[in-house]
Amino acid sequence: MLVSAKEMLTKAKAGKYAVGQFNINNLEWTKAILQTAEELKSPVILGVSEGAGKYMCGYKTVVGMVNGMLEEMGITVPVALHLDHGSYEGAKKCIEAGFSSVMFDGSHYPIEENIAKTKELVETCNKLGLSLEAEVGAIGGEEDGVVGGGEVADPKECKMIADLGITMLAAGIGNIHGKYPANWPGLRFDTLEEIQKLTGTMPLVLHGGTGIPADMIKKAISLGVSKINVNTECQLAFAEATRKYIEAGKDLEGKGFDPRKLLADGTAAIKATVKEKMELFGSVGKA
Ligand SMILES: [Zn+2]
User: Fold this and answer.
1) 254 CA distance to ligand 1 centroid (A)?
2) 240 CA → ligand 1 middle, Å
3) Domain extents in the chain
4) Yes or no: is domain 6-281 CATH 3.20.20.70?
5) Catalytic amino acids?
6) Of 96-110, 170-184, 237-251, 254-268, the least confident
């Protein structure tokens, strides 16, 4: 059965490790992540963006697939199904469809509007026992002239949003979605420390986990990050393994064209990536 992310993240924050959110795109992706979590006895959060939700034929399809897998695969570790970067409407749809966790990303709204909308969703989620992630936007917004620096949140705004009763808070600390540019100056630990001081026991979320060096990830966890989102890295691993399979001509040998064979190497590559991340985040054996 799907669970809210609250308990697993509270434990992670207290135990100084992080739970990975791995975004899913289809059946193979979901199966690979769940298998790895079960093998490593790690709690896990399955992330679904609105785009991926659409691709998988809607949130109800996703809920049906994930619930079916939890049962048929005999999954015993805590699993949360979480909307990633949800709009206000998207969050409501996912709640209706049976997600156990949602993110409302109001970071592009003025802070007052972000607060008002987040507050409303806090009430709904509390009533239903679901976890809610909120996000605070960047300082100034137009500071992006600093090429490749990533967004940095205002710690005072973080405190305002955290006090609304959300479960976990995403705040920019120089992190970036997708691949990091070569001139990236690194995470802003000064900002993270300030946010952590103001928000206390609130689990903090690090988005854009792909390509952040391991020592920075460990330091971020020591400073209060208890959920780390991984998406691009699994995609790159899947694409590379699948390309190698095709380039080696394996799809032309025997029944190598069978999708169960064609996608097997890519799926194994996702498993290896998830394992590596769970080990780095320290969530192995914490289920
Ligand atoms: Zn994100």
Assistant:
1) 41
2) 23
3) 6-281
4) yes
5) 84
6) 170-184
What secondary structure does DSSP assign to 13-38, as a single string? HHHT--EEEEE--SHHHHHHHHHHHH
89-107 pLDDT, tens digit per residue, is: 999 999 999 999 999 999 8
Q: Report residues near ion ligand 1: CB below 5 Å.
A: 207
Residue 24 main-chain phi, psi, to 5 deg: -110, 155
CA of 86 to the centre of ligand 1 (A): 10
Q: Which value, to the nearest 10 degrees, does the dihedral of the CA atoms of residues 147, 150, 156, 160 take?
A: 140
pLDDT digits 0-9 by tens, 143-181: 344 445 678 899 999 999 999 999 999 999 988 887 788
Sort residue 150 into left (φ over 0), alpha (ψ -120 to 50) or beta. Answer: left
Ligand 1 centroid – CA 255 distance (Å): 39
AA identity, residue 134: A
- Asked if residue 46 lies in contact with residue 229, where contact means CB atoms within 8 angstroms, the answer is no
